[in-house]
Amino acid sequence: MQLLDGKSLAKKIEENVTLEAKELKNRTGNVPGLAVILVGHDAASQAYVGMKKKACDRAGFYSVTHEMPEDISQDAIIKTIEMMNQNPNIDGILIQLPLPSHIDTTKILEVVAPNKDVDGFHPYNVGRLATGLDGFVPCTPLGVMHLLNEYNINPKGKDAVIVGASNIVGKPMAALLLNAHATVTITHIHTKDLKAHTLQADILLVGAGVINLIKEDMVKEGCIVIDIGINRASDGRLVGDVDYDAVAPKTSYITPVPGGVGPMTIAMLLSNTLKAAQNHAKEHHS
Ligand code: NAD
Hints:
Blueprint: E1 2-3, H1 6-28, E2 33-39, H2 43-59, E3 62-68, H3 74-86, E4 92-95, H4 105-111, H5 123-131, H6 139-150, E5 159-163, H7 170-179, E6 183-187, H8 194-198, E7 203-206, E8 224-227, E9 231-232, E10 238-239, H9 244-247, E11 253-254, H10 261-285
Parallel strand pairs: 1-11, 2-3, 2-4, 5-6, 5-7, 7-8, 8-11
Antiparallel strand pairs: 9-10
Helix pairs in contact: 1-10, 2-10, 6-7, 6-10
Nicotinamide-adenine-dinucleotide (NAD) binds next to helix 10.
């Protein structure tokens, strides 16, 4: 069993992004800029936004967080996004999810200018990903693809089974793996017999948000396991969706939680924001 070390790969990617951002600044005077919109007081969301801001600081990016009260109106959020769309110092716009229930998330995500959509959630970028065209790809599944690549794991021809079918994790993960020529199965809460599917997996990717969902008897010997889940255990520890101690010995590769997919997500956000800044610089100088 070998660990897929997302923490050290994320560090390497961050160093690269930092250098490239410096190069962009020297050449054009532009510093990559990220605007984050945070609505309400969800503790996990606040922690994620804090980590993203720190990462921007490390990479020499400009970043700004718009904190809005829980009861803010949809129109007020839309106006702020429209302002960010027009602001030349902002290359990337990120709406921290989940939004409160009175807000139509789909509508909000559609307001973000597709060329500033560094989370890759706008239907324009979703469509480009599904078609295999260049665009912005959601950070978590993109990070998983980088991690696989780093360890020379080629999905081509492999049976990839995804647990979880959200727009943020499962669906874009499936599109990326399909584009990489894997045979892809997507399972979710309504799947009849989860184990029957997971046992087929050469690569099992789990993002359901359920502690210990994947047990030892649900993976085949030599499987590659990517644990995308981040959950807070009753003793306060961060754990994934996989019963790590029991499952890990059966695998050929496995991601730890923390230190696997999580750090890769942040590194991909920096990488996407740099890409947006480079694109914008090209537009302005051509
Ligand atoms: P979500 O709640 O939007 O989606 C969960 C998906 O899992 C749904 O498709 C649901 O049908 C499925 N599911 C739930 N329970 C299931 C079960 N018992 N069996 C089979 N399928 C089941 O969640 P999300 O936003 O996609 O996040 C999923 C997990 O990934 C969470 O733990 C979240 O914290 C984590 N996450 C991690 C990162 C990261 O950077 N590592 C980023 C985003 C989300």
